[in-house]
Amino acid sequence: MSMDKYFSKVGSLSDILPRYRQRDAQLDAANFIFDSMKTYQPAVVEAPTGSGKTFAYLIPAFELGRRTIISTKTKQLMSQIAGKDIEAVNRIFGDDRFVAVLKGRRNYFCHLRFFRFVYPNQGRFERVVEWYGSVVDQEIIDVPIGVFSPHEIEHISTDSWQCTASKCEFYDICSFYRAKEQANSADIVITNHYLLMSDFALKSENEHASIFDFADHIIMDEAHSIPDIFPRFAGTELSLRSFLKLMNENRQAFDPREIELAAGMLSGLLETIKTRTYTNDFRGALLPYIEFVNKAIGEKDFEEMKNVHKRLVEKAVSVLGDSEGVRFVEQERGDILLQYIPLNAADKLREGMKNACLSPVFVSATLSGKGNFSYFLSETGYEEEEIGKMSLEPVFDMAQQGRLLVQDCDEAFYEELALKAKGSVLIICNSVGRMLKLTKMLKELCPGRVYSQRDIDIKDTEGLKDTIFVGCAVFREGMDFAHTGISYVVLDKLPFEYPDDLVLKEQAESVRKKGQEPFMDYFLPRAVIYYRQAVGRLLRHEDDKGVWVVLDRRIDTKNYGKYFATVLKDVPRINTLDEAVAFLEVEDAENEG
User: Fold this and answer.
1) Torsion, Cα of 141, 146, 151, 155 (10° steps)
2) Does pTM surpass 0.90?
3) What pairs with residue 517 in β-bridges?
């Protein structure tokens, strides 16, 4: 069967979407995904920005009518798919297919914590109690993120290690488990990668353990992020403050001096551990605290603490163990985090997927590095011959719509850019430190026009024009700045990661042990993927025009530069910012004419 009847100029999508334009790339992707799903063939699809990839996988999923899980990276993208895109598809197929959304536990109201910590202290939580009265009759209660403070949110939500599941007295009315029940009876489930990867990690150890019931298909949008997300769930993270929090929430079981001593020991660790480092380097400092809180909690015959404490002990054993992987400790928001990340998680990821669905589909605008899918496939456990592959050509006429300026990075360029650039500018840095330095300098030059990713949420950029945005990976991956009139995307440097990062250093050594070269086979393909993500922030519509600025001449002077140069191979080069301004002024004149 062909998807033409949905994607042609006179097809179903053109009937329901007023601005719909037929795109050959979208039809090709839809046919490929439909054929792959119909025959249960695993597939990987690289669909560049503007190709309409969401409808290209939604239409085949609805046409086949099989149980399908659709996962994407952020809650914002989940909302867009569930609230906008699926609503449009329902107008074609009707709404007889049951669609459900499932987020992580932290997004749902926890009755146990509310009635244990909030309701008895109504004077401290007046807003929360009043809000609960307005939602108490809802079958599923979502936590209103952005309305309450982090402290208030903490007392009305839970996570996997705090949740006692079926042992909880409120299990029958639990919002998370009601949402989970709906999801597991749905035809189409919308979720995020973090919850899905957690499910894969469970299923990699035990095929009967699950968050999601078995599905015919799992479609992973923004799939480029999966190799980085899954190892976090295949490994273990332990918050040392969790022990102290457990003691504070059950104060009646403890001598106040025990809590005071535990708090003092944790404060000492916060003074000692300032930067990320190997766990073994601070083992001698960590063990006294862990041993003390474990002994203090373990001696108490207090039923409400036992299950949570057991999970914390299991995490401690894992993060302090000796199985292959990297173990590091770092300070984060007044807490000490211990993490264990396995270096070779591809086999576990593959096993988890096998126990989760019959066939997966990986979709993203950026899945290839060095001109092929080798890096992505190796990180997801697939061999070239066992998975179908499609890479679509760019949708936009890059040579007509864009120009490329390559030059050395210096502060004078940014001063000139701030003075001459018309339209919005997106600057992407490789580090938070560099981002903060540039933001400070540009705010002095252009008061009121400059925002860093720490200053503003993407949802708050609506209506902002002639603005300078400065960010790192958050702004590079998946953010849509189209409504801000972006005219320039500036890469402060080629997006190589820092090889002295503990996890990356160990990954590089693991690659070397396999007989590969860490730079060419690991760091380079990742950097090319990041570069392509950054490039994709500029052109979002057929009538957009803009300038890419790469402040790194290695793209021309190094042999590996060719892998970056290929991304914009047909885009004409310019040599000065004045030429960029002139190119965009021609566009403005044409629009005015």
Assistant:
1) 0
2) no
3) none
